[in-house]
Amino acid sequence: MRSPVWFTDLSARPGNSLIDKTGALLRAAGIRERTRRGALTAVKLHFGEKGNAAFLRPIFIRKVVEEIAAAGGRPFLTDSNTLYVGSRSNAVDHLNTAITNGFAWAVAGAPVVIADGLRGESARRVPIDGKIFREVSIGAEIAHADAMVAVTHFKGHELSGFGGALKNIGMGCASRSGKLAQHSSVSPAVDPSRCTGCGTCVAHCPSGAIAVAESKAAISPDACIGCADCIVVCPEGAVTVNWNEASTGVQRKMVEHALGAISGKRSSSLFLSFVTQVSPYCDCYGHNDRPVAPDVGILASDDPVAIDQACVDLVIRATGFDPFRATHPSADWSIQLSYGEELGLGTRDYRLETL
């Protein structure tokens, strides 16, 4: 059975702005039915790394907030901390970046809650029926939410080919340990040329996996539990991720985390994707390159697989070729879609309903 995906182009006229059309998309996709009265509703988005300008405009997020509130929900804006060290790797910097990029309450109309806490340690282990994982680590505040609206900037990504709704909830809802599990199959590494032996990582390691000998820290792979705290607490940036997972593995692990992210709220989740300023790389970079495709429009659905398939199809139709495979030839983006379908997250077979 084909999943409906609602679409609007970027044309507008007096009395029917893009903000109005965004609200209409959400209503057509069923936001009133999927947000019950009093439901604590996570608006999952990407606040943009400091220096990046391709992230979604906060005025669109305000419309999402208004539609949730009109349905009786209690919305909050959220994302989880990053695995790498940057302007969103802890809740303090993350909140400052969100506000700097315009996501203050006065603009977006809802509070910002960082999903996995101060240092990415606030997580919930969610059981799933996966082929790689039996449970995944999801940011606690997303896991505890009653409902979720995932608002996605559709763009390129070096590991998954493109970043759509599945990536937004798969990587984006995972705690730091969940992100590490997706990107690496081994423990973090210490660069001895940068390590000063200060012991900060030792003090923060919950499993006692790190020791300092001869003024250098070392991580025991056997004792490491993969929490990744050491990566972000090191003042010298000496602890790094072993980025050893190939694109195929990352995509499959990402989809299994997406399954965990919407566990318990399959009937109260909705997906809104903006195919605009389609940058070649993720908004996690502190810059954004020129778009690889023209602006296409905005889409909404209750099916994350269908909306991603529709987005990529529209981009290819608009460009006449596949800009994601051209930019990232080693990443076969179809893997995330076929695996999402296999796990029952949705279907690649959709019908486009144009508003």
Structure description:
There is one protein chain. The longest helix is centred in the last third of the chain and has 16 residues. The chain is an alpha/beta fold. The strands form five sheets. The protein has an eight-stranded mixed sheet, with helices on both faces. The protein has a two-stranded antiparallel ribbon with strand order 5-6. It has a two-stranded antiparallel ribbon with strand order 8-9. Strand 5 and strand 6 form a beta hairpin. The mean pLDDT is 95. The chain folds into two domains: 290 residues, Rossmann fold (3-Layer(aba) Sandwich), CATH 3.40.50; 54 residues, Alpha-Beta Plaits. Helix 1 crosses helix 3 and helix 8 runs antiparallel to helix 11. The chain has 14 helices and 16 strands. Helix content is 33%, strand content 20%.
List the helices and strands and how they pair.
Blueprint: E1 3-8, H1 18-29, H2 31-34, E2 40-44, H3 58-70, E3 74-79, H4 91-100, H5 105-108, E4 112-114, E5 123-127, E6 135-139, H6 140-143, E7 147-153, E8 155-157, E9 161-163, H7 165-170, H8 176-183, E10 189-190, H9 200-204, E11 210-213, E12 216-219, H10 229-233, E13 239-240, H11 247-261, E14 269-275, E15 297-301, H12 304-319, H13 323-327, H14 334-342, E16 350-354
Parallel strand pairs: 1-16, 2-3, 2-7, 3-4, 7-14
Antiparallel strand pairs: 1-15, 5-6, 8-9, 10-13, 11-12, 14-15
Helix pairs in contact: 1-3, 8-11, 11-14, 12-14
